[in-house]
């Protein structure tokens, strides 16, 4: 039988061609496939659509043909398991899955075939893989030398710093401890430096070779606009650029999903809602329609998208800001998987900053965790406030150096920047003086009223019209000051206290702005005072 398996053994190139029908490997696939087929451990970071599946499927087939037995694929998503197993069957590869959709008899049947070594790739959910029953079956395979390879898909799920932490992934260390000689390949489409280090540590991949692809998605055009009326802005964007196209619109809350889906429908678009609070049947129906019909706009929370492989999504819009760059990258990455041009469009405003900061502050997590989350949020905020190439910053966040892309809003029409340092100093000193005078802090609206010299009831009630900065910022409009505040908060030069009615608080970072050591540069969208006056006259 050794001779028989020798004769059946095929090179990875042959398998790529004969089984999958592809002429050549794409990018780093070749190196990964050879390394893993030869029994090496690997950590693969490759963007969505890059072709991760073949990186373990071809080694699995090659190793099975040379008598090494079964590859176990750990995957968190039932829908994805079904798709992959279906596609492998069509290619003539023996594959199966074990998950909650099988009944007892079907489960036993799969297990029997696995134990006989008939299955090349077995897909299983992480919680299944680590059960005593399954582990004893793996023991049996291992004793007979028929446990070939472990592939751990969506490996970022092991990290609590990632955006999709799944505690079941933690238990996967047992694979390494129990079957030390069996090679392992872990794969993910998203991991910044911190998440990457966490994957290596948690899955004990210190010895694994790392294959890091470029995370660039050159066909995606990134645009981030200042939020005014998100619904109207979104409608205008879709009408202007994506009439009749399929797209996904991400919102922060279920209520917002429902309202926005309704507004889009009222405007004549083919929009459907999707969030975890909807009936499972409704969710399934909406998802199916999105996949099958043309030109559906899915309005969704982040519950939608993972494992949904629709190649011709032409735009991904965010009407609320996500938590961090990993989330943003993952969600926008669902556009343009076919390689054709696609838009990543986001509307972002002061309220987003305040909301995200508040969510972190109010979460029950420990202080260390909150600090990490704040750092990740800050990175996203600086991407949103940037007036240089978005792609350079995005890729830079994943540790990749690049040059201006020519395919983002800032490259296509470089924003005018104006010096908002004066406005920033006036705002900060107003906040300081109000705090000194009244012993309590106030919110953005009140502070702006004082600076612009509006003697409202509240201003008079506290005697704030007597503060020395009252009216010294009358040349600034409210939107301009909001822009300045947003950037001060985004850069940490000002804090919002969610526990105290969203009042503004000075920080360590306020000092250098107050002293004039830090410049505050603002994008043109927050137009300069002079320009604004000119426009008002005409
Ligand atoms: P990922 O899991 O990284 O998002 P997939 O493994 O689903 O990506 O692959 C994305 C698409 O690219 C699939 O349609 C796949 O068949 C195709 N593909 C992968 N590798 C190749 C290749 N070497 N040549 C041609 N097409 C490929
Ligand atoms: Zn650019």
UniProtKB/TrEMBL annotation:
Q: Which GO terms describe its molecular function?
A: DNA helicase activity; hydrolase activity
Q: Which residues form the Helicase ATP-binding domain?
A: 33-209
Is Isomerase given among the entry's keywords? Answer: yes
Q: Where is this region: Disordered?
A: 524-538
Needs which cofactor?
A: Mg(2+); Zn(2+)
User: Which residue ranges does the record assign to the Helicase C-terminal domain?
Assistant: 230-381
Family listed:
Belongs to the helicase family. RecQ subfamily.
Q: What is this protein called?
A: DNA helicase RecQ
């Amino acid at each position: 039988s050794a001779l028989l398996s020798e004769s059946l053994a095929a090179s990875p190139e042959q398998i790529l061609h004969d089984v999958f029908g592809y002429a050549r490997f794409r990018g780093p696939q070749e190196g990964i496939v050879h390394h893993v087929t030869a029994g090496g451990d690997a950590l693969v970071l490759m963007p969505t659509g890059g072709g991760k599946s073949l990186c373990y499927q071809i080694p699995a087939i090659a190793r099975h043909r040379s008598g090494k037995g079964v590859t176990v694929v750990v995957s968190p998503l039932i829908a994805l398991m079904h798709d992959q197993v279906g596609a492998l069957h069509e290619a003539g590869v023996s594959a199966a899955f074990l998950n909650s959709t099988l009944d007892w008899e079907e489960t036993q049947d799969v297990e029997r075939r696995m134990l006989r070594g008939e299955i090349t790739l077995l897909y299983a959910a992480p919680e299944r893989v680590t059960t005593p029953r399954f582990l004893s079956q793996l023991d049996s395979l291992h004793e007979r030398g028929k446990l070939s390879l472990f592939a751990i898909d969506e490996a970022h799920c092991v990290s609590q710093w990632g955006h999709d932490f799944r505690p079941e992934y933690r238990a996967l260390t047992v694979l390494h401890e129990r079957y030390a000689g069996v090679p392992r390949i872990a794969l993910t489409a998203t991991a910044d430096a911190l998440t990457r280090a966490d994957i290596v540590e948690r899955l004990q991949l210190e010895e694994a070779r790392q294959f890091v692809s470029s995370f660039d998605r050159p066909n995606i055009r990134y645009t981030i606009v200042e939020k005014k009326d998100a619904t109207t802005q979104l409608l205008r964007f879709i009408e202007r650029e994506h009439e009749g196209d399929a797209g996904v619109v991400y919102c922060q809350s279920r209520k917002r999903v429902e309202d926005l889906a309704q507004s889009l429908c009222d405007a004549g678009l083919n929009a459907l809602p999707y969030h975890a609070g909807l009936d499972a049947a409704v969710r399934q129906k909406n998802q199916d329609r999105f996949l099958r019909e043309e030109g559906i706009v899915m309005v969704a929370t982040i519950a939608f998208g993972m494992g949904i492989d629709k190649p011709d999504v032409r735009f991904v819009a965010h009407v609320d800001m996500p938590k961090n760059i990993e989330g943003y990258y993952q969600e926008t990455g669902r556009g343009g998987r076919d390689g054709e041009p696609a838009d990543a469009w986001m509307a972002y405003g002061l309220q987003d900053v305040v909301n995200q900061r508040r969510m972190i502050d109010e979460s029950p997590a420990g202080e260390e965790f909150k600090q990490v989350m704040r750092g990740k949020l800050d990175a996203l905020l600086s991407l949103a406030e940037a007036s240089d190439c978005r792609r350079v910053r995005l890729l830079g966040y994943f540790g990749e150096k690049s040059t201006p892309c020519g395919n983002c809003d800032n490259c296509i029409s470089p924003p005018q920047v104006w010096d908002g340092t004066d406005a920033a100093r006036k705002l900060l000193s107003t906040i300081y003086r109000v705090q000194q005078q009244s012993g309590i802090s106030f919110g953005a609206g009140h502070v702006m009223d004082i600076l612009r010299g509006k003697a409202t009831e509240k201003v008079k009630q506290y005697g704030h019209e007597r503060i020395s900065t009252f009216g010294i910022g009358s040349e600034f409009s409210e939107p301009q000051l909001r822009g300045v505040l947003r950037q001060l908060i985004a850069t940490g030069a000002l804090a919002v206290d969610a526990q105290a009615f969203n009042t503004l608080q000075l920080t360590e970072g306020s000092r250098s702005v107050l002293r004039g050591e830090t410049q505050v540069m603002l994008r043109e969208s927050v137009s300069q005072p002079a320009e604004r006056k000119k426009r008002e006259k005409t």
